[in-house]
Every structure is written in C-alpha cells, then in structure tokens.
Amino acid sequence: MSALPSSSQAPAAARAADTLREHIIEGQYRSGDPLREASIASALGVSRNTVRESFRLLAQDGLVEHAPHRGVTVRSLTAADIEDIYRIRRALELLGLEAVGPDLPLLSDLVGQAEEAAALGDWAAVSTADLRFHQTVVAALGSPRLDAMFQRLLAELRLAFAAMPDPREFHEPYLRRNRLLVGLLESGDRAAAAAELVAYLETAERALSRMLRWRNR
Amino acid sequence: MSALPSSSQAPAAARAADTLREHIIEGQYRSGDPLREASIASALGVSRNTVRESFRLLAQDGLVEHAPHRGVTVRSLTAADIEDIYRIRRALELLGLEAVGPDLPLLSDLVGQAEEAAALGDWAAVSTADLRFHQTVVAALGSPRLDAMFQRLLAELRLAFAAMPDPREFHEPYLRRNRLLVGLLESGDRAAAAAELVAYLETAERALSRMLRWRNR
DNA sequence: GCATATTTGTCCGTATGTATA
DNA sequence: CTATACATACGGACAAATATG
C-alpha cells in the first residue's frame, strides 16, 4: 500500500520529498506558492541538486507543478479538477465495494482509528484514516496500478482538504457515514452500501467545490 | 493529449528523458538492463546531474525502476503486470467506446496512418498509431487523469512490445481489427464494437503473456 | 521598452557510502 | 575480505531565462 515515510537511511532526495510532502499536506504552503530551490535547500540542510530531485518526486504525486525556468509551485486545484477526481472516485470505489470481502475488519478498524482521532480533535489524523479507508476499498480490486493511481488522486485531494477553513465541519460527518457504510457491508446489503457511498462522495464534492469557488473570489 | 517530444529549447533533462524513452521503446536496451549515469551522461553530452533528473522523469512513465544505491534499470514486466494492464485496458476502453462520438473521424484517420505505416513495413509506426487509436478511445471519456494514467499504461506496454520477436506477426492482425471496430462504430452497432474490442484485447494479452513466459525460460 | 536583480538550469570536481566480483 | 565500480551527495561556478523596478 506504500505511502510510508522513507526511513532515515533512505536517499536524501526521498527524505526531502517526504518533509515537503508533509508540509504541503498540512497546508504550510498555500496553493500556487513557489518553492524556491535555494531557500528550501538551506532550510532542509541539503544541496540544491537534491532539492531538485525531490521536486521531481513530488511532481509524481501531483502535489507540485513544474514550469520550465519558473520553478515549481504548489499545485492548485480547479473546479474541473475536483469534478474529475470525484468522477474517478465514484467509478473506482463503487467497483471496489463489490470486491470488498476479507478486508471488512480492516475497514472497520480504520473507522475506529478515525473515531479515536476525532475524539482527540486531531482532524489531520481523521483525514488520513478516512483516505486510507477509501484506499482500502479500491485495494480490494487487487490492481497495483489502480492502487497507485488512486493514491495520487487522494494526494491531490489533500491539497483541497488543506485549504478547507473548518476541518472539523468538513471531516466530522464522514465518520458516521463510513461507520454506516461498514455496517451495511457487514449486513451484506451491497446496494444500500453503494448508495451510501455515492451520497458520501456527492456531499464531499459539493463541499469542496463550494470552497474552491469561494476561495477564487 | 501530450506525449509530444520536448522542443529543442526545452530543459536538457527533459530532452535526455525523451532520447532515453525512445531508445527504451525501440528496444535498444533490454528489460532489466542497468542505465549507468556516467556512460549515459557522456553518450548524451550532459552532466550526471541532468541524467539523474531525467531518470526521475522516466520513472514517472514506469519505464525504469530505481533501486537505492543500485541505480536505475529498464523496467521488466511480469505476467502479473500484463494481466493488470489488460484488465484496466478492458475496463477503460469499454467505457470510452460508449462515449466515442465526434472523435470517430480521428479514429478512422489513425487506422489509416497505421495502414500506411504497415505498407512501408514500419512496424514501430504501426504500433504508435495503434496505441494512439486506443488512447483516443479513452480520451472520449474527457478525464485528464484517466488520460494520463492510460498513457503511462501504454508506455509500459511498449516495453513488452519491444521484446516481441516478430513485430509484424504481432501488429499486423490489429490493423484489420481496428478498421473493423471503426466500421462497427460508424454503423452504430455499439454492442458488436464492444465485443470486437474485448476480443482484440484478449488476443493481444495472450500473445504478450505467451511471449513473457517463453522469455523467462 | 530597458536595465537590473533574482532564480532556475546546467556543469564540474570531489568526497563518501554502498554493493558486488 | 578486499578491491573496485558505481551511486549518492555536496558546493561552487556560470549561463540563461524570467521577474522587477
């Protein structure tokens, strides 16, 4: 499933990419912000060459954009991006739902993790557990390539999550919905589970595109 | 639709990646072959830094693998890879087929290009036109992300194509099948078109996995 | 539109660590 | 186990493109 942080003995470029990825996901840079090679190099204590390599890695995740001679900027999502992402989510997660079987306890456990994080008010952790939940649904399809693609997709989504003004208001409703979804799956009611998933995605997409429209004036 | 070669004034890393991509696709390196930074740098007349950056770009296409402290090697596909790729092709191209409409003349034109290339015995060009044909089918879905993913998928496939002993025997049958497919679409018989596409993919997958099994002892 | 400052693009030399014959 | 080849990483330098006043 990857998405693991690189160990301390991993290549410097990978470690640099990890810290930058975290900073971006946590919203420490805003969409469109330029990432200057020199300042980041000195901030992370690595050379400019290493920073440039880490940029290429981040570009693979869709978290930054690279424009020749203008450097990289934090990716900024448009309304069309949100639409595209959620269209694909609907298609893939619905397919995945039909294949979910032995992973059900894992899904239930992930909802539990999200609930614990919510109790602590750690909405970043809630978000992480939520995304891992949906990644697990897709993983039921057993396709490494779809897994990788979906992971990039969710990484992009975090850009939008980071821009949400009230994380709690955004993430809290999904706790109950995911719990409900697991219940429906456990009771074997696939049709109802599918309907609930579609409704979930619909709600999230609306909230995000509303935020985007608001943010872009 | 991208996949365009970088212009001569593009960054050196991008140009180097283009050259290497072409070499790999044309089968000048065999699967598993190591790509040595130093030798490639001197061969292309660029610095090792630039070569390293180009490696990161090629990794995005899935054409090379990067192992820490062991450098990059030309990706080698397994039977599981072929299976995964064709499962996704079936799903995406069938969806795309339903959305094909105003692109029909373009599809017909691409088959024409393939036929011309075949007449000249240029099987690499036949392969390119064929892949572009299927890329166009998926493009009918109108999703930039699915387009990008599909392009990576087809780039990986070319690794297997390059390993085919007799390109003509492999590619020739698909000319007629694509022409047939366009005819069925033009006559509006979507069901028959879908069936033909599935049969096409089945044949190709079989041929490739047979080759893989033979090649790996 | 021009001159200047900033930043990226690219190369080189070198030192260190890692894997393998 | 040692030797060697190679990747990793740094820092400095300069050219080229872009942004800024």
Explain this structure:
2 copies of one chain form a homodimer. The first copy, chain A, is mainly alpha-helical and 217 residues long. Chain A is built from 9 helices and 3 strands; from the N terminus they run αβααββαααααα. Chain A has a 3-stranded antiparallel sheet. In chain A, a hairpin with a 3-residue loop joins β2 (64-67) and β3. In chain A, α1 packs across α3 (48-60) and α4 (79-99) packs across α7 (144-162). Chain A is globular and about 55 Å long. The model of chain A has no long low-confidence stretch (mean pLDDT 93).
Mind sketching the topology for me?
Two copies of one chain form a homodimer.
Chain A: H1 12-25, E1 34-35, H2 37-44, H3 48-60, E2 64-67, E3 71-74, H4 79-99, H5 104-119, H6 123-139, H7 144-162, H8 167-186, H9 190-215
Antiparallel strand pairs in A: 1-3, 2-3
Chain A binds a DNA duplex (21 and 21 nucleotides) through residues 11-13, 34, 36-38, 46-50, 52, 68-71.
Quick structural overview:
2 copies of one chain form a homodimer. Chain A is mainly α and 217 residues long.
Features:
homodimer; 217 residues; mainly alpha; 9 helices; 71% helix; globular; DNA-binding
- Largest interface: chains, residues each: A-B, 21 and 22 residues
Query: How widely separated are the two ends of chain A?
Result: 38 Å
Assembly of the depicted chains = homodimer
Give average pLDDT of chain A, whole number.
93
Order of adjacent strands in the largest pleated sheet of chain A = 1-3-2
**How many strands in all of chain A?**
3
Strand coverage percent of chain A: under 5%
Uncertain segments of chain A are: none
Number of helices of chain A: 9
Helix fraction bin of chain A: over 70%
The assigned structural class of chain A equals: mainly alpha
Shape of chain A: globular
